[in-house]
Structure formats: C-alpha cells, structure tokens
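User: Assemble these into one structure.

Assistant: Restating your components, then the assembled model:
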Amino acid sequence: MSVGRELKDIGEFGLIDRIAARTGAGAGVVIGIGDDAAAFQAPSGRINLVTTDMLVEGVHFDLSFCDPFSLGRKAMAVNLSDLAAMGGEPRHFLLSLAVPSATTLDFLDECMRGMLQRAEEFGVTLIGGDTCSSPDRLVISITLLGDQFPERIVRRRGARPGDRVCVTGTVGDSAVGLVLLKNGKGDEPIVRRHLDPTPRVREGKALADARLASAMIDLSDGLLADLGHILDQSSVGARIHLDALPLSVGFRENATVASPQSLSPALAGGEDYELLFTVHPKDMPDVFRLMEQMGTPVTEIGAITDERKLSVIGSDGEEIPFGKMGYDHFS
Amino acid sequence: MSVGRELKDIGEFGLIDRIAARTGAGAGVVIGIGDDAAAFQAPSGRINLVTTDMLVEGVHFDLSFCDPFSLGRKAMAVNLSDLAAMGGEPRHFLLSLAVPSATTLDFLDECMRGMLQRAEEFGVTLIGGDTCSSPDRLVISITLLGDQFPERIVRRRGARPGDRVCVTGTVGDSAVGLVLLKNGKGDEPIVRRHLDPTPRVREGKALADARLASAMIDLSDGLLADLGHILDQSSVGARIHLDALPLSVGFRENATVASPQSLSPALAGGEDYELLFTVHPKDMPDVFRLMEQMGTPVTEIGAITDERKLSVIGSDGEEIPFGKMGYDHFS
C-alpha cells in the first residue's frame, strides 16, 4: 500500500503512529508509547537493567549490503546480547530513529518488522522513543530495559584464577561473513552470521539463574578484546588455547579469504554476539549439561590465571605473539 | 592539556574512560558505567520512568551557532524536561554519542562538562551509554531514567472540561532567539532561551507531588501542537486567549523580527521547555501559591472544553483562524 511513499509524505507524527500501531502492551509496562515518558516496573525482588547501542549508517551498516529486515533484527539483537551478558531478562525497549527524509516507507516498515520480530521472540515490548529527520544517514539507537534478581546478575569483574574460559557457539564467523559480503559472496551461509546474529538471551539467563558463570561478556569487539575487558575488570589474566577455539565449517572454508593469518578473525573479529564467560572448575559439568539441554554448543577455550596477562597458546604449547586485539571504532 | 588533540588520538575506549572518570555514583545505582548493562533500582513504592531524545547535528543544532558547553546542557535539559512533564524525579542517564573522528577533545570535554553540570543540578548520574564514530555529523542520544509514586504521575490524558490551562514562564522565546541567532544577533539575552533552556523539573515534580495537575506536557513542539497532544489524548478541546499568553520583554521587542505575524512564535514556536498543564478550577489558588513559593511565574491562558476543538480567541472575543500548529521535523 505504501509503494513509492517516503517518510516526508507522512511526517514525524505519522511515523510514530505507524510504529505505535504495531506494538502491544507488555508485562510490567505501566505507561507505553504516547506520553512524555514511559513507566515500567520490575517484578518484586528484581532490579532493573539497562543498556543502549547506537547503529550509524556507514559505520555499523552499509545499506548496499544489508536488507532493512535484517538491519532491524540486528539492531535489536545487539542490545539483547548486552542484556544476555548480564544474565538479565529483557523486557522493554525505546527506539530512537534519525531518518533521511527520502527513506521509503517500505524500508522503514521492513526494518521495524525485523526489529519487532526479534523483540517478540524474547518477549520484549516497545514502550517509547524519539524520531527525527537526518540530513543524510540513518541512525538507530535502542535502549533496552530488563531485570534480574540482584544476586544473579553476572558482571565482568567476577573471574578468579583457575576459572575456565568458555564460549558459546563459534567465533569469527561474523568477521569472515562481512568480508564475503563485501566480495559479492552474499549467498554463503556464514554471511547470515554477520547480518543476523543470534543473541544468546536464554543461555545468559540460564547461566545466571543457575549461578554458574563468575564473569560474562558478549562478543562484540572480538574474542581477545572482550576477554580483555573481563581480565581488566577482574584484575586477572588468561591463557587461551588456539586449538580449542570453536570454528564453524563456513569459517574453516572461508577464513583465509578474510585474512592470510587465518585465525585472526576468530581472535579479533567482532560482532559474533556469542557469550564469553568464566566458570569455576567444579561447575563445568553443570555448564555442559545446561548448554546441552538448551541445544547450544559451548567450548572451554582456556583458563584464568593470576598473572595479569592474556596469552594465546599454539598447538606447540608456545605463546603466540598477537598484536591486533580487536576493532576500535575510532582507530 | 588536550590542545589540538582529536578523538582519533584517544579512540573509543579512551573516550569512554574520559567520560567515566568524571562521573560519580548516584543513589539507586547498583551497577554503573563499565559493564554490558547498568543496574538501578527505584525507591520503594515508586515505579520507573524513562524517556529518550536524540539530537542530530544539522537538524537540532548547528555548531556554527552553538557552543559545545551549551549544547551539552541543552541535550540534558530536553530530556529532563520530558521527565518533568510526567512529574517524575530524574535519577540516571545513558549517553550515546556518534562522533566525527576530527572532533577535538576540547569540544567533547566542554560538551560533557555542560551535560554533566545540568545533570548534577538535578541529582542525575551517568550510568552507561555507547560511543562510536560518525562519518560526518555529531549525534547525541540521551536516555533519562527516573521514578515517581504511580498515583502521582501526570499524564497527557487527564484533562477534563472546565479545567484551566496553565503554562510556566514565557512562551515563544526560543523560536525568536533562534531567528536572532541566525541573524547574527547572538548577544540578545533571549538567545539564551534557545541555547540553554531551563527544564522545569522542580515545578513538574511539585505539581505532581501535590496532585494539582490533571494533565501535563512540556513545550517542545510549540504551544498549540503540544496542547493538541493533551487534547487528543484527553478527548477534549480548549479555548486559549491570545491576550493571556505570557510574553517576555525580549519577545515583545524582537518577535516581529522573527515573524511579521508577531504572535506566531508564541503559538507555534518550539523548544521553550516550559510546562503546559491543566488544573481543576478549585485547585488554581494552590497552583498559584505553589509556583509563587518556587519563584516560578505561572499563567492561566485558557480552559478545557468538551467540544473537541482547539480555539484561539483574540482580544475582540472572536476566534482567530490559525494554520500553523507547530513544527514537524519531517515537514
């Protein structure tokens, strides 16, 4: 019905109405879209969690590579992933959009459809936001709210020497997928790992509820960089075994396309949105059992040390010098 | 110390550290900056309020007109104003910044100093956010959290026929100030009303605590447009008396510069960030008394009607046809 119509045809309030019409009421929402602020309440005994992520066209996404539906799903997923890394239960979100006026309504509808689909998968409701025009680039800023019992929240700072370092799923796929996408190989399955990552919300919450993770983070900046955040905040070090890294078939087939040093996307590539967490050795059997119940692969890749240093160990047992520790947005 | 240094010299994590170093702990903050999400808790019996506003360079601000310190203050103020309009107590905020890499550290420091100064005035603490690069324009997105007892929250939808329509301060100053600014008259005092608006946080909370306002909104889109939101959501109409509009000396001296139809900035000009609220007639003396105690001017400008129509009445008692109902960002 909206063929060829653009945002400028319906205006800011039209856009808000259009978005509001697609959202329902969520548990704990006292006031939703349409007032100066939204109101919400955490279930008794729980405290609120909040995280925010901004995606800027030309920095985080390129509209010549990504379809609007996947973009909407990913914008939601990256926020869900942050809440997952705390072991929280996601509940509500606010959406701010800065939209170039020539953006088509079809594009916006598809983007919203993807975002709301991802949100619904995890029981998350849109409760507010802001819309405005943008001179040139699309900007999507999401603030995600959730909650958890305070004693179950998993922070970055809880890793202790001897804890095992674990990661869900496989690593490096997103970085390899992005290179394939840029090389015109968008049909490779691994590309979906970049365009439409799966936030590990259920896994994060299950680990938190079972009190199995001593520290946790999601992989957004790259394995070494994100592990570095845990180490910094926990005042510890780690030894990671290169041979232990969980790599997908797609990664093994394509990693050399992305980098001559074929493991560097697994160590430094960002945006996998897997969970990286540390576990007391006695809890490892419970972790494997829990993840098996959920159908989620989990791999032990190393251990926490008291020496404040991050070492990557090769198959010969020797430490590998490794420079690039992740992707810095400003570098 | 940072003369000539640019954001690209310190990188994303450097920027986060720089911002985090200036923030303290706030009441109710369980986890602040530095984890995947922040955690906070409302005082017992209260529910959470949340609002978000995004400012885009070239849309909401022009760096050739506004200094970074005022920009930071305003970015905070527009969010505080939204929370004020609910009668809430602001507590914490998240800041997302998309920053062109050539931005100087001096600029960012000044912007953060203004933002944090405004936040501190109202006891608000930075608890998280996101930073990234921007190819060209600065984008500032703030999410403000607060709370209030649920029965005291003031919504847009509570206006009833017979209620009086009141507004704090004066109207139209920001729109006139902006025109003066664009005409190179940045020294006129009224220009500050555009660059550095005062959020009516204390007034909004006092009205809510005393249960004196039946509906409330802050003036961001313009008097008629914002009153229109109250009327829509309350399913009522209003009659506004043009002669009753509170106008500043600066407005009277300069409004014709802004518009040949000299009252149109008062009716349709946005960004005054005053509070517009409705009051049962029996409560009007209490409203005047409360605002007098606070030293804040308040003016009765009309009344709510059961006819679903917004009328502006001139000094001759006749209705004035008035087309422009406010500024739509996409129009």
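Residues 68-84 of chain B form the longest helix (17 residues).
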